[in-house]
Amino acid sequence: MTAIDESVRAAVSAVTDPELRRPIGELDMVREVTVDDGTAHVGIVLTIVGCPAAQRIESDVRAAAASVPGVTDVDVAVGVMTPAERAALTARLRGSRAARQMPFGPDSLTRVIAVTSGKGGVGKSTLTANLAVALAARGAAVGVIDADVHGFSIPGLLGLVGPDGLPPQPTRIDDLMLPPVAFGVKAISIGMFLPRDAAGGGAVAWRGPMLHRTVQQFLTDVFFGDLDVLLLDMPPGTGDVAISVGQFLPHADVLVVTTPQAAASDVAVRSGLLARQTGQRVIGVVENMAAMTLPDGTTLDLFGSGGGEAVAAALSTDAAPVPLLATVPLSPALRASGDAGVPVVAGAPDDAAAVAITRLADDILAQGRSLAGRSLPFAR
To answer: pTM (2 decimals)?
Structure first.
């Protein structure tokens, strides 16, 4: 291999697979590379037939090869991995983890945060989506599991919808699923798997065992890669999914969302109490839809006040105080951004709600993860 061949191979190998978020050289996707009279002949293989990222990968490979001095033209040959090569790739992606083994156990470096509420309609999903984007904007590797199976809304809030109004289906590599990415956040939702010809993606009419299995598959079969934070958008209340997540992730942190009114705050306490019963740690409360400042400088307490503080006080103990981490005001921009699929922290970062959520992201990153229950290495 000549020096220019090696330079082209190095440039091409550094191209990142947009779904796996790793260099294609590391993924063993680069084949023969030669340069003949200024023309670079590059062979690559994709994971599957019809790979959604095929055009982007080919374009990036072509640009990388063309950037090497001495290359005047590029010829890219695209193939597909054999079943044995795919099996080797999935084994490499899993690392030492066996198939069907959850990567988010107590020894994982990923901080898992379940976002809960006592009742629906308090803006829990909107908060989750915006918090995820705010964390990603600060350089964290973030994933979101839409565990609200019956009321899934994360794809729409993150703009993960196609021309047909339906979420994209994840790419599958054998038994691994690759979550779609929006605003730097990897997200998975049951809405991505429902019939494509049903209005709104169809309704989910499942009972406990199916819900339990869905949560388990999201935690084991979705390849999120190395994450700093995994957020779970929980269904409201203390039902089957909350119990299942408590079983799968007893070491998870919990963020309780409420509105200021007593009707929401009284029941929000229950979600925190259930989390604590399963061993999870309540890290704080977020009061959403709080008082907003009007153009004339007055404030509008549409839902009253004090609910967040009441929930934090009710969940606090002498050994484990629970703070009110954020107060997010009512915001027309927050509502509009959710409808548009552009989180307010990205589309209108100066909005009062966006500022409050961004501060919450900063506080969560500053907190770090509890080391309780983790096996820590010691040098001998």
So the answer is: 0.84
Rounded distance between C-alpha atoms, residue 228 and residue 234, angstroms: 19
Question: How many Å is the maximal CA-CA distance in the chain?
Answer: 76
As a dihedral over the C-alpha atoms of residue 348, residue 307, residue 235, residue 159, rounded to 10 degrees, the angle is: -10
Neighbours of 73 (CB within 10 A): 14
- Give the Cα separation of 73 and 130 in Å (integer): 44
Q: Identify the three-state secondary structure at position 211.
A: helix
What is the residue whose two structure tokens read 């153009």?
Answer: 295
Render pLDDT for 10-67 as a digit per residue (tens, 0 to 9). 999 999 998 888 899 999 999 999 999 999 999 999 988 877 788 999 999 999 999 9
Helix or strand (DSSP H, E) at 136: helix 124-137
Which stretches does DSSP call E strand in 58-196? 73-80, 111-117, 142-146, 171-173, 176-178, 181-182, 185-189
E strand segments, the chain: 30-36, 39-46, 73-80, 111-117, 142-146, 171-173, 176-178, 181-182, 185-189, 229-233, 253-258, 281-290, 292-293, 299-300, 324-329
User: Partners of 284 in the beta sheet?
Assistant: 255
Q: How far apart are CA 70 and CA 68, in angstroms?
A: 6
User: In the numeric block, which tokens belong to residue 168?
Assistant: 């994209």
Tell me 212's DSSP state: H
Q: How many CA atoms lie within 13 A of 74 on its CB side?
A: 24
For 318, the token pair is: 């002498």
Q: Amino acid identity of 378?
A: F
